[in-house]
């Protein structure tokens, strides 16, 4: 009988990390042959700048599997409530279909921006309570034009 060992590491050998990543890529392609390859992932940023050219807000996002994944949206406190966040979001949503995105997905927490996204037409699809402890994570989605 073969003995299997389990190793937990925060510093994996790059070849081992690549091996398991390629394993899931191969499995996914076997299941869905025309699935967009991971190399087609488009990472991008949208920045809002003041008159001096300083970044006062922005979005970090990724396009893959026909979905805009909003990873982060931040706006300086002094510029909130003036429509700048909605403008950033709208331009990001207009960029995404150029990279084959038909929908958007975002995670936000209970102290962050759930009402902001709902105002922009996002629909709440799930909540994970007590993540982080004492709060909740909300997941929202939207069909893009």
Describe the protein's topology.
Layout: H1 14-31, E1 42-49, E2 55-64, E3 67-75, H2 84-95, E4 103-109, H3 114-119, E5 123-129, E6 136-143
Parallel strand pairs: 3-4
Antiparallel strand pairs: 1-2, 2-3, 4-6, 5-6
Main structural class: alpha+beta
Computed Rg: 19 Å
Helix content: 10-25%
Spans of at least 5 consecutive residues whose pLDDT stays below 50 are none
Descriptive key words:
single chain; alpha+beta; six-stranded mixed beta sheet; 3 helices
Fold and architecture overview:
There is one protein chain. The protein is α+β, with helices and mostly antiparallel strands. Helix content is 25%, strand content 34%. It contains three helices and six strands; from the N terminus they run αβββαβαββ. The chain has helices at residues 14-31, 84-95, 114-119; strands spanning 42-49, 55-64, 67-75, 103-109, 123-129, 136-143. Strands 1-2-3-4-6-5 form a six-stranded mixed sheet. A hairpin with a 6-residue loop joins β5 (123-129) and β6 (136-143). The longest helix has 18 residues, at 14-31. The termini are far apart. The mean pLDDT is 92.
């Amino acid at each position: 009988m073969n003995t299997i060992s389990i190793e937990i590491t925060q510093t994996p050998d790059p070849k081992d990390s690549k091996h398991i990543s390629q394993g899931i890529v191969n499995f996914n392609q076997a299941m869905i042959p025309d699935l967009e390859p991971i190399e087609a992932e488009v990472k991008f940023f949208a920045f809002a700048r003041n008159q001096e050219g300083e970044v006062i807000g922005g979005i970090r996002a990724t396009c893959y599997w026909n979905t805009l994944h909003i990873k982060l949206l931040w706006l300086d406190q002094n510029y909130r409530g003036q429509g700048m966040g909605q403008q950033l979001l709208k331009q990001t949503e207009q960029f995404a279909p150029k990279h084959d995105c038909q929908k958007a997905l975002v995670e936000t927490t209970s102290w962050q921006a759930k009402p902001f996204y709902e105002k922009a037409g996002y629909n709440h699809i799930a909540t994970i309570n007590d993540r982080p402890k004492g709060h909740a994570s909300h997941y929202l989605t939207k069909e893009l034009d």
